[in-house]
Design goal:
- By secondary structure, the chain is an all-alpha fold.
- Helices cover 65% and strands 0% of the residues.
- It starts with a helix and ends with a helix.
- The model has no long low-confidence stretch (mean pLDDT 89).
Length: 181
């Protein structure tokens, strides 16, 4: 079995089950695609994510999809409203103290390359419906909090994050897989 087939299988599997399972399978397909199909190198997951944040062609396609698909636009509007009320944070180190997400607002290859203005921007929110870098970081943060933190299917906020993480990431995976055909 090739990576390409495995990615397609994970993407298909993500359409089944609960949103926690859907998100996990979609994220597996996403990171495998980045590392084996899009950026063919031995980059770390973080390096591949940062390259995606800088990818103007993918950014353009995804933002066009947000404009053309009402349900996707509404999903991102809902995410933006929710994060404006309570910012997303990193719960993977200390479950009792949520930290700011260090890669939020950063589309550079290295955190040291961030400008003073970028460092001052509010973290954990989607600034606009064209905030591509933080949309990507939203998916990564959900993954990190789910795998290393305490995402609980009984908590409404956690259900929200994985449901909308899945719905919005699925659209990106659809773009990737359409491009591979």
């Amino acid at each position: 079995m090739s990576y390409e087939q495995l990615i397609k299988n994970w993407h298909a599997k993500a359409s089944e089950e609960d949103y926690f399972s859907k998100f996990v399978f979609e994220y597996l397909a996403f990171i495998a695609y980045l590392k084996t199909q899009k950026y063919l190198s031995n980059d770390s997951d973080r390096q591949a994510i940062q390259k995606l944040k800088q990818a103007k062609d993918i950014r353009k396609k995804y933002l066009e999809r947000i404009k053309s698909r009402k349900f996707l636009r509404k999903d991102w509007e809902h995410i933006k409203q929710e994060l404006d009320k309570l910012r997303l944070g990193n719960a993977s180190r200390d479950l009792n103290s949520v930290e700011e997400i260090k890669w939020w607002n950063c589309s550079k290859n290295n955190l040291d390359e961030m400008s003073p203005e970028e460092r001052q921007e509010i973290k954990g929110v989607i600034h606009s419906l064209s905030d591509w870098g933080n949309m990507v970081e939203f998916w990564c943060s959900i993954r990190n909090n789910l795998f290393h933190g305490t995402k609980d299917p009984e908590r409404e906020r956690d259900r929200f994050a994985v449901e909308y993480g899945y719905k919005t990431l699925k659209e990106l995976m659809d773009i990737f897989l359409e491009n591979n055909r």
